[in-house]
Specification:
Length: 356
């Protein structure tokens, strides 16, 4: 992938490329203005104050303004909040309650549902390292993966479920969350399509949602850090692989983003919690699709000495969909940077690099 420094500008007709350029310039000016306020948090990176990310109202009738806000956010930070997303408070509360109930089980019982070859199920602390260069054995988080849930008794459901006797409503709660988050994700992607000067139903029309790969990742950070984990992360620095991620947290701080991953020392900014909103971020596949006009931003979760729960929902297109740089993001001077690839092959590549 080319870095920003290598990027070739397009002619004036490409508003997306121009918008990104002006935002990068503003950001550089602001970063130098903020220099005195930054508190160093370690040798290799720096922590700044909290970010102000836009809040996108999915119920707004003014689609044009909303699409512009989405475009600005995707170009500038790759992160924004969404409100009126259609996921009921009661459902989110139930998902967090079921998640807590599961993670409270003794490790031995959780390990009975250890992640299988289809990446469904439980991963204990230290089992995953989102930043391959981390000096630690693995991240402190524990997680549980739930993929698309078919009808009852679906023979090819590779999901793993806690025992029904002790978790009577677990599967139904997760199934409902899966479907509801998918509906929210589709609405967000239609705004993203508008923000790219495409038709609102673009992703639907090309078949991205025919058989979408959507996965819930329940996350638990214990908040306890022993001496040997000094400096380790709840979730180490990474960008998400797919199209978009919808993130709900219990409000405990810890999430940080780094807008300029190639700048050293890296500048990490806290993403503040806003009650009842979802945090949405762009993944690597959408960055590739938009020829790097949209950003898939590096993020991590630091430990703050408090227990933390979150629920990520990774929405990726149908595996056989061919993803090629969008015309509205390319021009003669800025040709496509990536060859076409199917969504499935791309994710397979990324997963096999993570789980060698
Ligand atoms: O727990 C969080 O807030 C973020 C988790 C995350 O980035 C991920 O699971 O990819
Ligand atoms: Fe992530």
């Amino acid at each position: 992938m080319q870095s920003d420094g290598d990027r070739v500008d397009c002619d004036d007709s490409n508003s997306l490329v121009r918008l990104r350029d002006s935002l990068i310039q503003t950001e550089q000016t602001q970063t130098s203005k903020n220099k005195g306020k930054i508190q160093p948090s370690g040798e290799s990176d720096m922590a700044a104050g909290s970010l102000e990310l836009p809040v996108v109202d999915l119920a707004s009738p003014d689609l044009q303004s909303v699409a512009e806000a989405v475009r600005k956010a995707c170009v500038e930070t790759g992160f924004f909040y969404v409100t009126n997303h259609g996921i009921q408070d009661e459902l989110l509360d139930a998902v967090f309650a079921e998640s807590k109930m599961f993670f409270e089980l003794p490790l031995g019982e959780k390990m009975l549902l250890q992640r299988n070859s289809s990446h469904r199920g439980y991963t204990p602390p230290y089992a995953e390292k989102l930043d391959a260069s981390s000096e630690f054995q693995g991240d402190l988080k524990e997680s549980f993966y739930i993929g698309p849930v078919g009808g009852l008794d679906t023979p090819n459901d590779t999901n793993q479920w806690p025992p029904k006797e002790r978790f009577p409503s677990w599967k139904d709660t997760m199934k409902l969350y899966h479907a509801t988050a998918l509906a929210a994700g589709k609405r967000i992607l239609s705004l993203i399509a508008l923000s790219l000067d495409l038709d609102a139903v673009f992703f639907q029309n090309i078949g991205a949602f025919d058989c979408p790969s959507a996965v819930i990742r329940l996350l638990h950070y214990s908040g306890e850090v022993n001496d040997s984990d000094n400096g380790n992360y709840g979730a180490s620095a990474h960008s998400d692989y797919g199209m978009i991620t919808l993130l709900a947290t219990d409000g405990t701080p810890g999430l940080q983003i780094c807008r300029e991953k190639d700048k050293h020392p890296q500048l990490w900014e806290d993403v503040p919690h806003i009650d009842r909103t979802l945090i949405v971020n762009i993944g690597d596949l959408l960055e590739r699709w938009t020829n790097c006009i949209f950003r898939s931003t590096l993020h991590r979760v630091v430990t703050v000495g408090r227990e933390r729960y979150s629920v990520a929902y990774f929405l990726d297109p149908s595996p056989d969909l061919v993803v090629q740089c969008l015309e509205s993001c390319c021009c003669e001077a800025n040709p496509p940077r990536f060859p076409p690839i199917t969504g499935g092959d791309y994710l397979k590549e990324r997963f096999s690099a993570t789980y060698k």
